[in-house]
Specification:
3 helices; about 0% strand; elongated; mainly alpha; single chain
């Protein structure tokens, strides 16, 4: 069974994002299925929007 699933006997290597540059991370993301890419970019958009609102309100509070 293992010969059918993995004929070269080499197991795929785990991808560790922390060791990659931003460009390499984006290249790896582009290899994902469209649905997975959409989820990742939606999460990034949500986090960036949250940060912008947080920064905006901190500036407004500091100006009071």
């Amino acid at each position: 069974m293992d010969d059918i699933l993995n004929p070269g006997k080499e197991l795929p290597k785990e991808v560790t994002v922390e060791d990659k540059t931003t460009m390499e991370q984006l290249r790896l993301i582009q290899q994902l299925d469209d649905e997975d890419k959409h989820v990742i970019f939606k999460m990034i958009d949500t986090m960036l929007t949250k940060k912008k609102f947080k920064d905006f309100f901190q500036k407004k509070v500091a100006a009071l």
